[in-house]
């Protein structure tokens, strides 16, 4: 603690670090959750640093987009846990496709709602949460470890017990953050980034711009403060750090860069 | 009047009687136009969205931002709404069988697929909890198969909440048969029953005897479609 600072006004403990430091803290065999959705507000600067770092045999938990693709292409991935992997405007993600078709990665394939309940269970420190989503589908066939539970009440309904999606590390990208990790989204959708932060042992936030805590409410209402510093282990200032995925309102998806990404993947075969 | 116009209206008809619930399309011109057309004509209480996360107070043309926003539906709320059920979704399918089980996950053996597709996405929960319809732009034996490779959306034999109808470029089908199998409801103008049978990889109910013709759009409906889709993007989804 620095003496002489007024409490609450200036960061006493700065958590600011580099993307390389975040990536170096990830160990082989870890489970890494990645925020955003499809090709939207993905922490691409952190993912690219992870591609260059030594960690491998990772389990990636993600509403998947190019984050999953890049890590698969780099041979970092042992297992993907996801309801989909897509680039949104380009439906199929080429690296993930190739890795699956080559039998290089294991896949835990969940329904989107099941996946959310897995995040909610982990965020609430529950072993599982029950849901109807998944019942009757082949999600139960291809995930034979999944169990169902029966409602203890009069209805006696059988439900899928979605296990908590706990993770060692979460990586998320938001629009603004302060040096201690209070993080703010300014776009129309929070996605599930707060749940990743709460579900992880350590959450790292990259942001478009580091701001003074006193300035957080200058750009958005208090409801836009999505993640509290108590959930955050490190903060990286990474302008453009979600590109080529979208980061509204700072920038939209770079569709030309996304098309090049797909063409490059095709050339790599 | 084009085949695409007939298809949009046939998809819009899926929402008839739904009232004040979200009409959700998977995207693309036809399903989005269908929900908006239904709202602007015979189903005015329907809730429609902008394809991202806004519930629109007005009904904008394709690709246009709404002038009035009446609600917020980020993904977490959308996934909640799926479980809540006040929603009728029109999905797509890479494969569909005679009970309406559908696959968007992968082709071939799941353990090592010949072709990895999207993944199951929300299809399991959608079909278990919400009324569901399908829009399939190319009716063929490649899509209408005896057995799907990975059941993503539930059929009538696996506990689907309600499969309302399947609209293709050739016909309208439903599952109102004694065994919950797929039934031919109507063929689009210019399409024969034989065309539909030839393009379907399993036996259909309702193909013997008189089969109805899918209704043509009214003049009012065509005017609405011209306003919502002046560039006729809908034509690109349906083979001429």
Low-pLDDT parts of chain B are: none
DSSP helical segment count of chain B: 6
Distance between the termini of chain B: 12 Å
Instruction: Tell how many strands the DSSP assignment of chain A holds.
Output: 12
Number of strands of chain B: 13
Helix content of chain A: 25-40%
The number of helical runs of chain A is: 9
Strand content of chain A: 15-25%
Helix content of chain B: 10-25%
State the CATH topology of chain B.
Glutaconate Coenzyme A-transferase
Oligomer: heterodimer
Q: Sketch the topology of chain A as an H/E string, one letter per element.
A: HEHEHEHEHEHEEEEHEHEEH
Please describe the structure with a list of short key phrases separated by commas or semicolons:
heterodimer; A: 269 residues; alpha/beta; Glutaconate Coenzyme A-transferase; 9-stranded mixed β-sheet; 9 helices; 27% helix; 24% strand; disordered N terminus; B: 240 residues; 6 helices
């Amino acid at each position: 603690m620095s003496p002489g600072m007024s409490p609450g006004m200036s960061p006493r403990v700065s958590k600011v670090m580099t993307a390389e430091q975040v990536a170096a803290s990830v160990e082989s065999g870890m489970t890494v959750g990645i925020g955003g959705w499809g090709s939207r507000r993905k922490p691409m600067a952190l993912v690219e640093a992870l591609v260059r770092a030594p960690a491998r045999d990772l389990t990636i938990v993600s509403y998947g987009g190019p984050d999953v693709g890049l890590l698969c292409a780099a041979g970092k991935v042992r297992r993907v846990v996801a309801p989909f992997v897509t680039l949104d405007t380009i439906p199929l993600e080429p690296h993930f496709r190739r890795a699956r078709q080559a039998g290089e990665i294991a896949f835990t394939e969940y329904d989107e709602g099941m996946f959310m309940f897995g995040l909610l269970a982990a965020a609430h420190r529950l072993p599982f949460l029950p849901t109807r989503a998944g019942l009757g589908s082949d999600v139960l066939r291809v995930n034979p470890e999944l169990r169902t539970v029966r409602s203890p009440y009069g209805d006696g309904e059988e439900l899928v017990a979605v296990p908590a999606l706990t993770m060692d590390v979460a990586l998320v990208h938001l629009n603004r953050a302060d040096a201690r990790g209070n993080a703010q989204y300014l776009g129309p959708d929070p996605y599930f980034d707060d749940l990743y932060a709460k579900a992880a042992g350590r959450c790292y936030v990259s942001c478009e711009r580091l701001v003074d805590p006193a300035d957080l409410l200058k750009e958005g209402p208090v409801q836009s403060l999505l993640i509290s510093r108590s959930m955050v282990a490190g903060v990286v200032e990474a302008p453009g750090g979600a590109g080529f995925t979208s980061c509204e309102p700072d920038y939209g998806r770079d569709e030309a860069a996304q098309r090049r990404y797909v063409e490059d993947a095709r050339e790599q075969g | 009047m084009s085949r695409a116009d007939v298809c949009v209206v046939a998809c819009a008809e899926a929402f008839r009687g739904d009232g004040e619930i979200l009409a959700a399309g998977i995207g693309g011109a036809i399903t989005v136009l269908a929900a908006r057309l239904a709202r602007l004509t015979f189903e005015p209480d329907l809730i429609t969205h902008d394809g991202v996360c806004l519930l629109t107070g007005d009904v904008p043309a394709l690709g246009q931002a709404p002038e009035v926003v009446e609600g917020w539906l980020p993904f977490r709320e959308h996934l909640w709404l799926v479980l809540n059920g006040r929603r009728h979704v029109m999905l797509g399918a890479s494969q569909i069988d005679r009970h309406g089980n559908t696959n968007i996950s992968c082709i071939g053996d799941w353990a090592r697929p010949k072709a990895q597709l999207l993944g199951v996405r929300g299809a399991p929960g959608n079909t278990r909890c919400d009324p569901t319809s399908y829009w399939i732009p190319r009716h063929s034996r490649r899509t209408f198969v005896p057995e799907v490779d990975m059941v993503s959306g539930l059929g009538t034999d696996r506990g689907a909440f309600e499969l309302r109808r399947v609209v293709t470029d050739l016909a309208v089908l439903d599952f109102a048969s004694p065994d919950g199998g797929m039934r031919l409801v109507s063929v689009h103008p210019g399409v024969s029953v034989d065309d539909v049978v030839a393009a379907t990889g399993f036996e259909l109910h309702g193909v013997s005897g008189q089969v109805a013709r899918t209704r043509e759009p009214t003049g009012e409906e065509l005017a609405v479609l011209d306003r919502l889709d002046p560039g006729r993007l809908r034509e690109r989804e349906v083979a001429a």
